[in-house]
Amino acid sequence: MNKKQQVAERKTFAIISHPDAGKTTITEKLLLFGNVIRQAGTVKGKKSGKFAASDWMDIEKKRGISVTSSVMSFPYENFHVNILDTPGHEDFSEDTYRTLTAVDSVVMVIDSTKGVEPQTIKLFKVCRMRGIPIFTFMNKLDREGKEPLELLSELEEVLGIESYPMNWPVGMGKNFLGIIDRYNEEFVHFTGDEKEEKMPLEQLQQSELKDHPQLQSTEEELMLLDEAGNQFDEEKVMKGELTPVFFGSALANFGVHSFFDTFVKFASPPKPRKTDDGLVSPESETFSGYIFKIQANMNPAHRDRIAFLRVCSGKFERGMSVKITRTNKSIKLNQTQQFLAASRETVDEAYPGDIIGIYDPNIYQIGDTLVGGKESIQYRELPQFPSEMFRKVRVKNVMKSKQFKKGIEQLVQEGAIQLFKQDATEDIILGAVGLLQFEVFEYRMKAEYNVDIEFTMLGDKLPRWLPEPPENKNIYDSRNILVKDRYDRYAVLFESEFTLRFFKDKYKDIELIDLLESNDYKSL
Ligand code: G4P
User: Fold this and answer.
1) In the predicted model, is pLDDT for residue 54 greater than 70?
2) Ligand 1: does its nearest atom lie under 6 Å from the Cβ of 12?
3) 521 pLDDT band (50/70/90 cuts)?
4) What is the DSSP string of 141-171?
5) Average pLDDT of the chain?
6) 389: Cβ–Cβ under 8 A, 6 or more apart, which residues?
7) Domain boundary residue among 242, 266, 290?
8) Pair (64, 154) in one structural domain
9) Does any ligand 1 atom lie closer than 6 A to the CB of residue 54?
Protein backbone atom coordinates (compact mmCIF):
# COMPACT_ATOMS: atom_id res chain seq x y z
CA MET A 1 0.00 0.00 0.00
CA ASN A 2 1.40 3.40 -0.86
CA LYS A 3 1.97 6.15 1.65
CA LYS A 4 -0.90 8.28 0.48
CA GLN A 5 -3.32 5.45 1.22
CA GLN A 6 -1.69 4.80 4.58
CA VAL A 7 -2.24 8.44 5.52
CA ALA A 8 -5.84 8.48 4.26
CA GLU A 9 -6.59 5.40 6.37
CA ARG A 10 -5.46 6.92 9.65
CA LYS A 11 -8.18 8.05 12.02
CA THR A 12 -6.60 9.45 15.12
CA PHE A 13 -8.99 10.76 17.73
CA ALA A 14 -9.72 11.27 21.40
CA ILE A 15 -12.91 10.87 23.36
CA ILE A 16 -13.68 13.79 25.63
CA SER A 17 -16.34 14.03 28.28
CA HIS A 18 -17.19 15.07 31.78
CA PRO A 19 -16.53 12.27 34.29
CA ASP A 20 -19.24 9.61 34.33
CA ALA A 21 -20.73 10.54 30.98
CA GLY A 22 -19.73 7.14 29.64
CA LYS A 23 -16.35 7.58 27.97
CA THR A 24 -14.90 4.36 29.36
CA THR A 25 -17.99 2.41 28.41
CA ILE A 26 -17.89 3.68 24.82
CA THR A 27 -14.13 3.12 24.52
CA GLU A 28 -14.68 -0.44 25.60
CA LYS A 29 -17.34 -0.95 22.94
CA LEU A 30 -15.05 0.43 20.26
CA LEU A 31 -12.31 -1.95 21.38
CA LEU A 32 -14.81 -4.79 21.14
CA PHE A 33 -15.76 -3.78 17.58
CA GLY A 34 -12.07 -3.70 16.72
CA ASN A 35 -11.56 -7.15 18.26
CA VAL A 36 -8.96 -5.68 20.58
CA ILE A 37 -10.73 -7.11 23.60
CA ARG A 38 -13.11 -10.01 23.65
CA GLN A 39 -15.13 -9.31 26.71
CA ALA A 40 -16.80 -6.31 28.23
CA GLY A 41 -15.41 -5.30 31.60
CA THR A 42 -11.81 -5.70 30.56
CA VAL A 43 -11.13 -2.02 30.40
CA LYS A 44 -13.27 -0.89 33.20
CA GLY A 45 -13.95 -1.97 36.72
CA LYS A 46 -13.78 0.98 39.05
CA LYS A 47 -16.04 -0.69 41.54
CA SER A 48 -15.03 -4.27 41.06
CA GLY A 49 -11.46 -3.47 42.04
CA LYS A 50 -10.08 -4.40 38.65
CA PHE A 51 -8.12 -1.63 37.06
CA ALA A 52 -8.04 -0.34 33.56
CA ALA A 53 -5.23 -1.79 31.54
CA SER A 54 -3.86 1.70 31.12
CA ASP A 55 -3.24 2.27 34.82
CA TRP A 56 0.50 2.19 35.08
CA MET A 57 1.45 4.12 38.10
CA ASP A 58 0.91 3.31 41.73
CA ILE A 59 -0.96 6.49 42.28
CA GLU A 60 -3.44 5.48 39.64
CA LYS A 61 -3.98 2.16 41.26
CA LYS A 62 -4.59 3.79 44.60
CA ARG A 63 -7.20 6.05 43.17
CA GLY A 64 -8.50 3.89 40.40
CA ILE A 65 -8.02 6.54 37.81
CA SER A 66 -5.91 6.96 34.78
CA VAL A 67 -3.13 9.51 35.15
CA THR A 68 -1.52 8.65 31.88
CA SER A 69 -3.11 9.07 28.52
CA SER A 70 -2.62 5.82 26.74
CA VAL A 71 -3.02 5.09 23.08
CA MET A 72 -4.99 2.27 21.55
CA SER A 73 -4.41 1.32 17.93
CA PHE A 74 -6.28 -1.20 15.83
CA PRO A 75 -7.53 -1.82 12.31
CA TYR A 76 -11.23 -1.23 11.75
CA GLU A 77 -12.99 -1.72 8.42
CA ASN A 78 -10.70 -0.03 5.92
CA PHE A 79 -9.16 2.22 8.49
CA HIS A 80 -6.39 2.25 10.99
CA VAL A 81 -7.79 3.67 14.20
CA ASN A 82 -5.73 5.36 16.92
CA ILE A 83 -7.68 6.27 20.05
CA LEU A 84 -5.87 8.52 22.44
CA ASP A 85 -7.22 8.15 25.91
CA THR A 86 -7.60 11.31 27.93
CA PRO A 87 -7.89 11.11 31.70
CA GLY A 88 -11.57 11.48 32.33
CA HIS A 89 -11.45 12.06 36.04
CA GLU A 90 -12.41 15.29 37.74
CA ASP A 91 -8.76 16.07 38.35
CA PHE A 92 -7.35 15.89 34.90
CA SER A 93 -4.17 17.59 33.88
CA GLU A 94 -2.32 19.46 31.22
CA ASP A 95 -1.55 16.15 29.57
CA THR A 96 -5.19 15.96 28.63
CA TYR A 97 -4.93 19.25 26.76
CA ARG A 98 -1.66 18.24 25.14
CA THR A 99 -3.13 14.97 23.97
CA LEU A 100 -5.80 16.92 22.16
CA THR A 101 -3.13 18.55 20.01
CA ALA A 102 -2.09 15.12 18.75
CA VAL A 103 -5.51 14.06 17.40
CA ASP A 104 -7.29 14.85 14.16
CA SER A 105 -10.86 14.52 15.44
CA VAL A 106 -12.70 14.32 18.71
CA VAL A 107 -15.70 12.41 20.00
CA MET A 108 -17.56 14.35 22.67
CA VAL A 109 -19.67 12.16 24.92
CA ILE A 110 -22.51 13.90 26.71
CA ASP A 111 -24.70 12.38 29.40
CA SER A 112 -28.16 13.17 28.06
CA THR A 113 -29.56 13.27 31.58
CA LYS A 114 -27.16 16.09 32.48
CA GLY A 115 -26.39 17.98 29.29
CA VAL A 116 -23.18 19.92 28.71
CA GLU A 117 -21.04 19.78 31.87
CA PRO A 118 -18.04 21.89 32.99
CA GLN A 119 -15.18 19.61 32.04
CA THR A 120 -16.65 19.12 28.58
CA ILE A 121 -16.69 22.88 28.15
CA LYS A 122 -12.97 23.16 29.01
CA LEU A 123 -11.94 20.36 26.69
CA PHE A 124 -14.21 21.62 23.97
CA LYS A 125 -12.50 25.04 24.08
CA VAL A 126 -9.14 23.45 23.33
CA CYS A 127 -10.58 21.49 20.38
CA ARG A 128 -12.28 24.63 19.16
CA MET A 129 -9.03 26.55 19.29
CA ARG A 130 -7.53 23.94 16.97
CA GLY A 131 -10.52 23.85 14.63
CA ILE A 132 -10.78 20.07 14.54
CA PRO A 133 -13.93 18.06 13.75
CA ILE A 134 -16.04 17.26 16.80
CA PHE A 135 -18.57 14.42 16.80
CA THR A 136 -21.11 14.26 19.60
CA PHE A 137 -22.53 11.12 21.20
CA MET A 138 -25.55 11.80 23.42
CA ASN A 139 -25.35 8.92 25.82
CA LYS A 140 -27.69 7.17 28.27
CA LEU A 141 -30.86 7.33 26.21
CA ASP A 142 -32.03 4.29 28.16
CA ARG A 143 -32.59 6.71 31.01
CA GLU A 144 -35.02 9.54 31.39
CA GLY A 145 -33.04 12.59 30.32
CA LYS A 146 -33.29 16.05 28.86
CA GLU A 147 -35.37 16.54 25.74
CA PRO A 148 -33.30 16.00 22.58
CA LEU A 149 -34.13 19.46 21.25
CA GLU A 150 -33.02 20.96 24.54
CA LEU A 151 -29.72 19.08 24.29
CA LEU A 152 -29.12 20.45 20.81
CA SER A 153 -29.80 23.98 21.90
CA GLU A 154 -27.34 23.52 24.79
CA LEU A 155 -24.67 22.64 22.27
CA GLU A 156 -25.38 25.82 20.40
CA GLU A 157 -25.86 28.08 23.41
CA VAL A 158 -23.28 26.77 25.87
CA LEU A 159 -20.60 25.64 23.44
CA GLY A 160 -21.44 27.85 20.50
CA ILE A 161 -21.28 25.09 17.91
CA GLU A 162 -23.91 24.29 15.31
CA SER A 163 -25.22 20.75 15.32
CA TYR A 164 -26.77 18.28 12.95
CA PRO A 165 -28.49 15.21 14.43
CA MET A 166 -27.46 12.18 12.39
CA ASN A 167 -30.14 10.20 14.15
CA TRP A 168 -33.09 11.06 16.35
CA PRO A 169 -34.37 9.17 19.37
CA VAL A 170 -37.90 7.85 19.63
CA GLY A 171 -38.76 8.24 23.29
CA MET A 172 -36.32 7.80 26.12
CA GLY A 173 -35.89 5.94 29.39
CA LYS A 174 -38.55 3.26 29.83
CA ASN A 175 -40.25 4.45 26.66
CA PHE A 176 -37.17 4.36 24.52
CA LEU A 177 -38.25 2.72 21.29
CA GLY A 178 -35.17 3.27 19.16
CA ILE A 179 -33.63 5.79 16.82
CA ILE A 180 -34.43 7.09 13.40
CA ASP A 181 -31.16 7.09 11.55
CA ARG A 182 -31.45 10.17 9.32
CA TYR A 183 -28.16 9.51 7.62
CA ASN A 184 -28.79 5.85 6.66
CA GLU A 185 -32.56 6.38 6.39
CA GLU A 186 -33.52 3.52 8.64
CA PHE A 187 -35.18 2.83 11.95
CA VAL A 188 -33.23 0.98 14.62
CA HIS A 189 -35.42 -0.73 17.17
CA PHE A 190 -34.18 -0.78 20.76
CA THR A 191 -34.84 -4.21 22.15
CA GLY A 192 -32.54 -3.87 25.14
CA ASP A 193 -30.53 -7.00 24.46
CA GLU A 194 -27.56 -5.45 22.68
CA LYS A 195 -28.92 -6.58 19.32
CA GLU A 196 -29.88 -3.87 16.91
CA GLU A 197 -32.97 -4.52 14.81
CA LYS A 198 -32.83 -2.32 11.74
CA MET A 199 -35.52 -1.64 9.19
CA PRO A 200 -35.85 0.80 6.30
CA LEU A 201 -38.06 3.77 7.13
CA GLU A 202 -40.78 2.64 4.66
CA GLN A 203 -41.01 -0.66 6.43
CA LEU A 204 -41.50 1.13 9.74
CA GLN A 205 -44.61 2.79 8.28
CA GLN A 206 -46.07 -0.63 7.61
CA SER A 207 -45.08 -2.23 10.88
CA GLU A 208 -47.11 -2.44 14.06
CA LEU A 209 -44.89 0.25 15.59
CA LYS A 210 -46.28 2.91 13.29
CA ASP A 211 -49.09 3.97 15.63
CA HIS A 212 -46.86 4.15 18.64
CA PRO A 213 -47.47 7.52 20.35
CA GLN A 214 -43.71 8.13 20.75
CA LEU A 215 -43.24 7.79 17.04
CA GLN A 216 -45.80 10.44 16.24
CA SER A 217 -44.17 13.10 18.37
CA THR A 218 -40.81 12.11 16.92
CA GLU A 219 -42.13 12.67 13.42
CA GLU A 220 -43.17 16.17 14.37
CA GLU A 221 -39.72 16.88 15.78
CA LEU A 222 -38.09 15.51 12.67
CA MET A 223 -40.21 17.76 10.48
CA LEU A 224 -39.13 20.69 12.59
CA LEU A 225 -35.50 19.69 12.21
CA ASP A 226 -35.87 19.30 8.46
CA GLU A 227 -37.43 22.72 8.15
CA ALA A 228 -35.64 24.79 10.74
CA GLY A 229 -32.55 22.80 11.63
CA ASN A 230 -29.05 23.06 10.22
CA GLN A 231 -28.10 21.34 6.99
CA PHE A 232 -25.44 18.68 7.08
CA ASP A 233 -22.33 20.34 5.75
CA GLU A 234 -19.17 18.24 5.57
CA GLU A 235 -16.94 21.25 5.14
CA LYS A 236 -18.26 22.79 8.34
CA VAL A 237 -17.78 19.46 10.12
CA MET A 238 -14.15 19.38 9.00
CA LYS A 239 -13.56 22.87 10.36
CA GLY A 240 -15.17 22.02 13.69
CA GLU A 241 -18.01 24.48 13.08
CA LEU A 242 -20.79 21.93 13.00
CA THR A 243 -20.99 18.77 15.08
CA PRO A 244 -22.81 15.67 13.87
CA VAL A 245 -24.85 14.37 16.80
CA PHE A 246 -25.66 10.72 17.50
CA PHE A 247 -28.06 9.52 20.19
CA GLY A 248 -27.66 6.15 21.86
CA SER A 249 -26.71 4.17 24.89
CA ALA A 250 -23.17 2.99 25.45
CA LEU A 251 -24.13 0.65 28.25
CA ALA A 252 -26.82 -1.05 26.21
CA ASN A 253 -24.51 -0.98 23.20
CA PHE A 254 -27.22 0.76 21.27
CA GLY A 255 -26.37 3.12 18.43
CA VAL A 256 -22.66 2.84 19.16
CA HIS A 257 -21.75 0.62 16.23
CA SER A 258 -23.57 2.71 13.64
CA PHE A 259 -22.13 5.83 15.24
CA PHE A 260 -18.62 4.44 14.87
CA ASP A 261 -19.19 3.34 11.28
CA THR A 262 -20.31 6.84 10.32
CA PHE A 263 -17.64 8.45 12.45
CA VAL A 264 -14.71 6.66 10.78
CA LYS A 265 -16.11 7.65 7.42
CA PHE A 266 -16.21 11.36 8.25
CA ALA A 267 -13.44 11.75 10.81
CA SER A 268 -10.49 13.73 9.57
CA PRO A 269 -7.40 11.98 8.22
CA PRO A 270 -4.06 13.53 9.21
CA LYS A 271 -3.84 17.10 7.95
CA PRO A 272 -0.88 19.40 7.27
CA ARG A 273 0.54 20.77 10.50
CA LYS A 274 1.98 24.12 11.48
CA THR A 275 5.71 24.62 11.74
CA ASP A 276 7.85 27.71 12.21
CA ASP A 277 8.20 27.80 8.42
CA GLY A 278 4.67 27.11 7.30
CA LEU A 279 2.65 23.93 6.89
CA VAL A 280 4.13 20.45 6.45
CA SER A 281 1.98 17.94 4.60
CA PRO A 282 1.60 14.40 6.00
CA GLU A 283 2.46 13.19 2.52
CA SER A 284 5.84 14.86 2.53
CA GLU A 285 8.67 12.32 2.15
CA THR A 286 10.68 13.44 5.16
CA PHE A 287 9.82 11.77 8.44
CA SER A 288 8.86 14.26 11.13
CA GLY A 289 6.83 14.38 14.31
CA TYR A 290 6.63 16.08 17.67
CA ILE A 291 6.61 14.97 21.27
CA PHE A 292 3.42 15.87 23.07
CA LYS A 293 3.93 13.98 26.27
CA ILE A 294 6.67 12.44 28.33
CA GLN A 295 5.87 9.77 30.83
CA ALA A 296 8.45 9.05 33.47
CA ASN A 297 8.77 5.81 35.37
CA MET A 298 6.16 3.86 33.46
CA ASN A 299 7.98 0.84 34.67
CA PRO A 300 9.24 1.64 38.19
CA ALA A 301 11.67 -1.29 38.06
CA HIS A 302 13.56 0.44 35.26
CA ARG A 303 12.86 4.10 36.00
CA ASP A 304 12.40 4.61 32.31
CA ARG A 305 10.97 7.57 30.50
CA ILE A 306 8.87 7.27 27.40
CA ALA A 307 8.30 10.15 25.02
CA PHE A 308 5.05 10.03 23.03
CA LEU A 309 5.55 11.19 19.48
CA ARG A 310 2.88 12.04 16.98
CA VAL A 311 4.07 11.20 13.49
CA CYS A 312 3.23 14.16 11.25
CA SER A 313 4.92 13.36 7.93
CA GLY A 314 6.93 10.73 6.10
CA LYS A 315 7.35 7.19 7.29
CA PHE A 316 8.90 6.05 10.52
CA GLU A 317 11.16 3.01 10.37
CA ARG A 318 12.73 1.49 13.43
CA GLY A 319 16.47 2.08 13.59
CA MET A 320 16.32 5.29 11.57
CA SER A 321 18.40 8.29 12.56
CA VAL A 322 16.56 11.46 13.40
CA LYS A 323 17.55 14.91 14.51
CA ILE A 324 16.08 16.81 17.42
CA THR A 325 15.56 20.29 16.01
CA ARG A 326 16.02 22.03 19.37
CA THR A 327 19.46 20.59 20.07
CA ASN A 328 20.49 19.67 16.52
CA LYS A 329 21.61 16.31 17.91
CA SER A 330 21.10 13.06 16.02
CA ILE A 331 19.76 9.92 17.61
CA LYS A 332 18.95 6.45 16.34
CA LEU A 333 15.42 5.36 17.12
CA ASN A 334 15.72 1.73 18.08
CA GLN A 335 13.55 1.37 21.12
CA THR A 336 10.16 2.35 19.86
CA GLN A 337 6.81 1.07 20.88
CA GLN A 338 3.19 1.16 20.02
CA PHE A 339 0.60 0.93 22.72
CA LEU A 340 -2.29 -1.15 23.59
CA ALA A 341 -2.91 0.08 27.07
CA ALA A 342 -0.37 -1.67 29.29
CA SER A 343 1.04 -3.97 26.70
CA ARG A 344 3.63 -2.28 24.58
CA GLU A 345 4.77 -3.79 21.35
CA THR A 346 7.83 -2.90 19.38
CA VAL A 347 6.85 -0.87 16.36
CA ASP A 348 8.84 -1.23 13.16
CA GLU A 349 7.06 1.31 11.04
CA ALA A 350 4.53 4.05 11.52
CA TYR A 351 2.75 6.64 9.40
CA PRO A 352 1.37 10.13 9.89
CA GLY A 353 -1.42 10.01 12.45
CA ASP A 354 0.25 7.21 14.42
CA ILE A 355 1.59 7.68 17.92
CA ILE A 356 4.79 5.96 18.88
CA GLY A 357 6.50 5.69 22.23
CA ILE A 358 10.22 6.34 22.22
CA TYR A 359 12.58 5.36 24.98
CA ASP A 360 13.90 8.64 26.40
CA PRO A 361 17.39 8.66 27.87
CA ASN A 362 16.58 12.09 29.29
CA ILE A 363 17.16 14.03 26.09
CA TYR A 364 13.69 14.99 24.96
CA GLN A 365 11.40 17.78 26.03
CA ILE A 366 7.72 18.20 25.47
CA GLY A 367 7.27 20.07 22.19
CA ASP A 368 10.46 18.69 20.60
CA THR A 369 10.37 18.02 16.87
CA LEU A 370 12.18 14.99 15.46
CA VAL A 371 13.14 15.03 11.78
CA GLY A 372 14.41 12.20 9.59
CA GLY A 373 16.03 14.27 6.84
CA LYS A 374 18.35 17.21 6.60
CA GLU A 375 15.57 19.76 6.79
CA SER A 376 15.05 21.74 9.92
CA ILE A 377 11.43 21.54 11.04
CA GLN A 378 9.95 22.82 14.28
CA TYR A 379 6.27 22.08 14.88
CA ARG A 380 4.21 24.74 16.53
CA GLU A 381 1.46 22.49 17.75
CA LEU A 382 2.02 22.72 21.48
CA PRO A 383 0.89 25.92 23.08
CA GLN A 384 1.42 26.52 26.75
CA PHE A 385 -1.91 25.91 28.40
CA PRO A 386 -2.80 28.32 31.16
CA SER A 387 -2.75 26.86 34.67
CA GLU A 388 -5.89 27.39 36.64
CA MET A 389 -4.86 26.56 40.18
CA PHE A 390 -1.79 27.63 42.07
CA ARG A 391 0.17 26.68 45.18
CA LYS A 392 3.30 27.95 46.80
CA VAL A 393 5.76 25.20 47.47
CA ARG A 394 8.77 24.87 49.73
CA VAL A 395 11.01 22.10 50.91
CA LYS A 396 10.37 20.86 54.45
CA ASN A 397 13.97 20.09 55.23
CA VAL A 398 16.38 22.78 53.98
CA MET A 399 19.17 20.18 53.88
CA LYS A 400 17.31 18.75 50.89
CA SER A 401 17.27 22.03 48.95
CA LYS A 402 19.51 20.72 46.22
CA GLN A 403 17.35 17.67 45.46
CA PHE A 404 14.28 19.89 45.72
CA LYS A 405 15.68 22.20 43.05
CA LYS A 406 16.64 19.32 40.81
CA GLY A 407 13.26 17.64 41.22
CA ILE A 408 11.37 20.81 40.37
CA GLU A 409 13.58 21.47 37.39
CA GLN A 410 13.05 18.03 35.94
CA LEU A 411 9.35 17.74 36.61
CA VAL A 412 8.75 21.19 35.18
CA GLN A 413 10.79 20.39 32.11
CA GLU A 414 8.83 17.22 31.68
CA GLY A 415 5.67 19.29 31.72
CA ALA A 416 4.25 17.66 34.86
CA ILE A 417 3.62 21.06 36.41
CA GLN A 418 4.19 24.74 35.62
CA LEU A 419 6.69 26.87 37.47
CA PHE A 420 6.33 30.52 38.44
CA LYS A 421 8.22 32.80 40.78
CA GLN A 422 6.53 35.56 42.66
CA ASP A 423 8.27 38.69 41.47
CA ALA A 424 8.37 40.48 44.81
CA THR A 425 9.44 37.56 47.01
CA GLU A 426 11.01 34.96 44.70
CA ASP A 427 8.63 32.41 46.28
CA ILE A 428 8.13 29.36 44.10
CA ILE A 429 4.59 29.02 42.82
CA LEU A 430 3.41 25.92 41.02
CA GLY A 431 0.58 26.08 38.56
CA ALA A 432 -1.60 23.23 37.36
CA VAL A 433 -4.57 22.63 35.14
CA GLY A 434 -5.90 19.89 37.42
CA LEU A 435 -5.47 19.15 41.14
CA LEU A 436 -4.06 15.77 40.29
CA GLN A 437 -0.89 17.42 39.00
CA PHE A 438 -0.08 18.63 42.54
CA GLU A 439 -0.66 15.17 43.92
CA VAL A 440 1.53 13.56 41.29
CA PHE A 441 4.16 16.23 41.90
CA GLU A 442 4.21 15.64 45.65
CA TYR A 443 4.27 11.88 45.17
CA ARG A 444 7.10 11.97 42.66
CA MET A 445 9.20 14.44 44.66
CA LYS A 446 9.07 11.95 47.49
CA ALA A 447 9.40 8.76 45.44
CA GLU A 448 12.06 9.91 43.00
CA TYR A 449 13.96 12.69 44.79
CA ASN A 450 13.29 11.75 48.40
CA VAL A 451 12.07 15.25 49.20
CA ASP A 452 9.16 16.18 51.43
CA ILE A 453 7.44 19.35 50.38
CA GLU A 454 4.92 21.73 51.84
CA PHE A 455 2.22 23.48 49.89
CA THR A 456 0.50 26.76 50.66
CA MET A 457 -2.78 27.05 48.80
CA LEU A 458 -3.26 30.04 46.60
CA GLY A 459 -6.47 28.71 45.06
CA ASP A 460 -7.81 29.25 41.58
CA LYS A 461 -6.41 32.16 39.63
CA LEU A 462 -6.77 33.58 36.17
CA PRO A 463 -3.31 33.98 34.67
CA ARG A 464 -2.71 36.60 32.01
CA TRP A 465 0.64 37.21 30.40
CA LEU A 466 2.24 40.61 29.88
CA PRO A 467 3.90 41.01 26.49
CA GLU A 468 6.33 43.55 27.99
CA PRO A 469 8.01 43.75 31.42
CA PRO A 470 5.83 45.89 33.71
CA GLU A 471 6.67 49.58 33.98
CA ASN A 472 5.15 50.02 37.38
CA LYS A 473 5.34 47.05 39.71
CA ASN A 474 3.51 48.86 42.49
CA ILE A 475 0.13 48.25 40.99
CA TYR A 476 0.34 44.52 41.74
CA ASP A 477 -0.62 42.98 45.08
CA SER A 478 -2.09 39.81 46.55
CA ARG A 479 -5.21 40.07 44.37
CA ASN A 480 -3.19 40.34 41.20
CA ILE A 481 0.11 38.70 41.88
CA LEU A 482 2.99 39.57 39.60
CA VAL A 483 4.97 36.48 38.70
CA LYS A 484 7.55 35.31 36.19
CA ASP A 485 7.11 32.02 34.37
CA ARG A 486 9.90 29.53 33.69
CA TYR A 487 10.97 31.50 30.65
CA ASP A 488 11.18 34.70 32.72
CA ARG A 489 8.11 36.12 31.06
CA TYR A 490 5.93 38.26 33.27
CA ALA A 491 2.40 37.18 34.09
CA VAL A 492 -0.28 38.30 36.48
CA LEU A 493 -2.37 35.87 38.55
CA PHE A 494 -5.78 37.43 39.03
CA GLU A 495 -7.92 36.41 41.97
CA SER A 496 -11.21 36.42 40.06
CA GLU A 497 -13.01 37.56 36.95
CA PHE A 498 -13.97 40.62 38.93
CA THR A 499 -10.38 41.62 39.79
CA LEU A 500 -9.40 40.99 36.20
CA ARG A 501 -12.14 43.22 34.85
CA PHE A 502 -11.38 45.89 37.44
CA PHE A 503 -7.72 45.84 36.46
CA LYS A 504 -8.52 46.03 32.76
CA ASP A 505 -10.79 49.02 33.31
CA LYS A 506 -8.25 50.81 35.45
CA TYR A 507 -5.18 50.13 33.33
CA LYS A 508 -6.49 50.23 29.82
CA ASP A 509 -3.01 50.53 28.32
CA ILE A 510 -1.72 47.30 29.76
CA GLU A 511 -2.09 44.43 27.34
CA LEU A 512 -3.04 41.10 28.92
CA ILE A 513 -2.77 37.84 27.01
CA ASP A 514 -5.07 34.88 27.61
CA LEU A 515 -3.29 31.76 26.36
CA LEU A 516 -6.52 29.92 25.60
CA GLU A 517 -7.70 32.68 23.35
CA SER A 518 -4.46 33.66 21.74
CA ASN A 519 -4.47 31.42 18.75
CA ASP A 520 -1.04 32.46 17.69
CA TYR A 521 1.29 30.31 19.73
CA LYS A 522 4.16 32.64 18.92
CA SER A 523 2.50 35.63 20.47
CA LEU A 524 4.60 35.08 23.56
P1 G4P B 1 -16.55 7.89 32.26
O2 G4P B 1 -15.50 6.99 31.71
O3 G4P B 1 -16.97 8.96 31.30
O4 G4P B 1 -16.27 8.40 33.62
O5 G4P B 1 -17.89 7.03 32.41
P6 G4P B 1 -18.10 5.47 32.52
O7 G4P B 1 -18.03 4.84 31.18
O8 G4P B 1 -17.25 4.95 33.61
O9 G4P B 1 -19.62 5.46 32.93
C10 G4P B 1 -20.08 6.06 34.13
C11 G4P B 1 -21.30 5.34 34.64
O12 G4P B 1 -22.35 5.48 33.70
C13 G4P B 1 -21.08 3.84 34.82
O14 G4P B 1 -21.89 3.39 35.89
C15 G4P B 1 -21.64 3.27 33.53
O16 G4P B 1 -22.05 1.93 33.64
C17 G4P B 1 -22.80 4.20 33.29
N18 G4P B 1 -23.19 4.28 31.88
C19 G4P B 1 -22.41 4.44 30.80
N20 G4P B 1 -23.15 4.46 29.67
C21 G4P B 1 -24.43 4.32 30.05
C22 G4P B 1 -25.67 4.25 29.34
O23 G4P B 1 -25.75 4.31 28.14
N24 G4P B 1 -26.78 4.11 30.12
C25 G4P B 1 -26.75 4.02 31.46
N26 G4P B 1 -27.89 3.88 32.11
N27 G4P B 1 -25.60 4.08 32.17
C28 G4P B 1 -24.46 4.22 31.47
P29 G4P B 1 -21.33 3.20 37.34
O30 G4P B 1 -22.47 2.69 38.15
O31 G4P B 1 -20.65 4.44 37.82
O32 G4P B 1 -20.18 2.15 37.18
P33 G4P B 1 -20.29 0.59 36.97
O34 G4P B 1 -20.78 0.05 38.25
O35 G4P B 1 -21.22 0.36 35.85
O36 G4P B 1 -18.89 0.19 36.68
Assistant:
1) no
2) no
3) very low
4) TTS----HHHHHHHIIIII--EEEESEEEES
5) 87
6) 431, 432, 433, 434, 435, 438, 458, 459, 460, 461
7) 266
8) yes
9) no
Identify whether 378 is part of a domain. Answer: no
Are 115 and 257 members of one domain? Answer: yes
Percent of the chain with pLDDT over 70: 88
Residues 359 and 415 in one domain: no
Query: Quick check: helix, strand or coil at residue 113?
Result: coil
pLDDT at 136 over 80: yes
Give the span between the Cα atoms of 320 and 97, in whole angstroms: 30
Shared domain check, 342 and 430: no
pTM reported for the whole predicted model: 0.86
Supply the range of the domain harboring residue 316. 273-371
Write out pLDDT tens, residues 194-214. 778 899 988 888 888 888 888
* CATH code, domain with 361: 3.40.50.300
Average pLDDT over residues 357-378: 89
d(C-alpha 116, C-alpha 243), whole Å: 14
Higher pLDDT, 220 or 138: 138
- Judge if the beta carbon of residue 47 lies within 6 A of ligand 1: yes
- Lowest-confidence segment of 150-164, 338-352, 367-381 by average pLDDT: 338-352
Q: How many CB atoms lie within 10 A of CB 452?
A: 13
So what's the pLDDT on residue 293?
86
Alpha carbons 107 and 471: distance in angstroms, whole number: 46
Distances 222 to 126, 143, 460 between C-alpha atoms, Å: 32, 21, 44
Q: Is the CB of 508 under 6 A from ligand 1?
A: no
Torsion of CA 264, 270, 271, 277, to 10 degrees: 170
What dihedral do alpha carbons 108, 71, 240, 162 form, nearest 10°? -10
Determine which residue's CA is closest to atom 10 belonging to ligand 1.
20
Residues 331 and 423 grouped into a single domain? no
Looking at the structure, tell me whether residues 353 and 495 fall in a common domain: no
256 with 322, same domain: the answer is no
Q: Report the separation in Å between the CA atom of 116 and the middle of ligand 1, taken as the mean of its atom positions.
A: 16
- Top-confidence residue, 217 or 40: 217
Question: Closest Cα to atom 31, ligand 1: which residue?
Answer: 20
The helix or strand, by DSSP H or E, that contains position 205, with its residue range, turns out to be helix 201-206
* Best CA proximity match to 183, nearest among 116, 114, 234, 252: 234
If you measure from the C-alpha of residue 205 to the centroid of ligand 1, how many angstroms do you get, rounded to a whole number?
34
Query: Is 485 a residue whose pLDDT tops 60?
Result: yes
Question: Domain total for the chain?
Answer: 3
- Residue 139 exposed, middle or buried by CB count within 10 Å (0-12, 13-18, 19+): buried
Specify the ligand 1 atom closest to the Cα of 248: 23
